[in-house]
Amino acid sequence: MKPINRRQFVRAGAAVAAAAAVPSRAFGQAPTVLAPKTVRPLVVCSANGHQYRNGGAETCVEKAFAMIASGRDVLDAVIAGVTLNEQDPLDMTVGFGALPNADGVLQLDASCMHGPLKRAGGVSALEGVKTPSLVARAVADRTDHHLLTGAGAQAFARRLGFEILPDLNTEASRKAWFEWKRQTDPLHYLDPEDREVAVRKVSLAILRRLGVEPEHAYGTINCNGLGPKGEVCGVTTTAGLAWKIPGRVGDSPILGAGLYVDNAAGAAGSTGRGEANLYNLSSFLVVELMRQGLHPKDAGLAVLKRIKANTIEKRLLNSRGLPNFGLNFYILNAKGEHAGVGMYPSRYAVCTENGAETRPVEALCEGRAED
Ligand code: ASP
Questions:
Q1: Atom of ligand 1 nearest to the CA of 248
Q2: In testing the pocket of ligand 1, which one of 238, 243, 279, 316 has its CB within 8 Å of the most ligand atoms?
Q3: Which residues share a beta bridge with 238?
Q4: What pLDDT shows up at residue 14?
Q5: Which residue numbers are catalytic?
Q6: What is the reported pLDDT for 182?
Q7: DSSP for 331-370?
Q8: Contact, 338 vs 290, CB < 8 A?
Q9: What gap in Å lies between CA 330 and CA 335, rounded to an integer?
Q10: pLDDT digit string (tens) for 283-298?
Q11: 329: pLDDT confidence band, cut at 50, 70 and 90?
């Protein structure tokens, strides 16, 4: 990462006022996390945000941080960060070259929220556009709506001049899909229980061979930023669950599930099993708990506990009776406190004026999701 000119931090620097977090009495009340007037810029992101560079010099978090530090709009900055991953075929969980759905088609989901402007936008099941996060931003800025889906989302993108590619697969993603198809087709006639187990086994074996950790059968990038004036913004973008049923929409484009931002309280976004997140509307709940006064870490862990308690179906539990899926939250509050939390140990990315790094998440359960 390019060293940040100290002067770029003048606005963000020494004048950090002490902030107070006053627990409120009930949901629905006015925001009670009092943000200081100036804070130190910060970017918090899933670990892939400090892994890929799309052939350039910077990772997502480095790019986002540098833009925030130089005074750019925080949502522009975090989106500029994640578009590196969306366009990099090496990140097989996001955008171009990600793992496609069961028909071999890439259907992408994304959402974004601008805290200060109180704008939000999302797209789901979008085909042919490498950078769904930018289309989500256009939904937020240029329409009265919050979510466009499928063919309508693509037509919207086309009209705005986004390039529509006939196929977002790369050689590698196509090959992985073909292998999945070859191994799973004969299983489609089994009874639902056996099929579930068999398909899961085959999918995990293929992912392991690709060097993708099982918890990234789901894969996404969420990136949240805090600007020097306390501007909180976030973006989540994904190709969704590898080899999903065509038309399946996960948590990423759904406000409150894969992402939630409230400028007065903070931001939370997620990667991992989207269904668990949709069921619990988790990102909204994380932000709401921060509004009640909880630290990002405590808010995240409280929500993971709720998700764990709501996970009772046998097919979703491992031999220890714990959730057999990964789910992480990347969280910052309006004061600049932050955390990465996960159902199981993994890492997340952070960038401050001291540079970018990955750190271990606070994990609710020990070991791994899968036995
Ligand atoms: N949460 C995303 C989804 O379920 C996938 C992921 O984060 O791995 O679509």
A1: 9
A2: 238
A3: 109, 220
A4: 37
A5: 220
A6: 77
A7: EEETTS-EEEEESS--EEEEEETTEEEEEEPEESSSS-S-
A8: no
A9: 15
A10: 999 999 999 999 999 9
A11: very high
Q: For 239-253, 293-307, 316-330, which range has the lowest pLDDT when averaged over its residues?
A: 239-253
| Dist CA 200 CA 323 (whole Å) | 15
Query: Which residue shows structure tokens 């090496």?
Result: 90
Residues with CB under 6 A from ligand 1: 218-220, 238, 240-241, 250-252, 258, 271-272, 274
Residue ID of nearest Cα to ligand 1 atom 9: 240
Q: Taking the CB of residue 221, how many other CB atoms lie within 10 A of it?
A: 34
Per-residue tokens: 97: 């070259």
Mutational test site, ligand 1, from 218, 316, 343, max ligand atoms within 8 Å of CB: 218
Q: CA 250 to CA 279: how far, in whole Å?
A: 11
Residue-level pLDDT at 16 = 35
- State CA 308 to chain mean position distance: 20
More confident residue, 243 or 7: 243
Q: Cα dist. 123→84, 109, 128, 150, 329 in Å? A: 18, 6, 12, 8, 21
Nearest atom in ligand 1 to 93's CA: 8
List the domains of the chain with CATH numbers. 42-363 (3.60.20.30)
**Per-residue tokens: 154:** 């693509």
Confidence bin at 349 (pLDDT 50/70/90): very high
- Alpha carbon distance 246, 150 (integer Å): 11
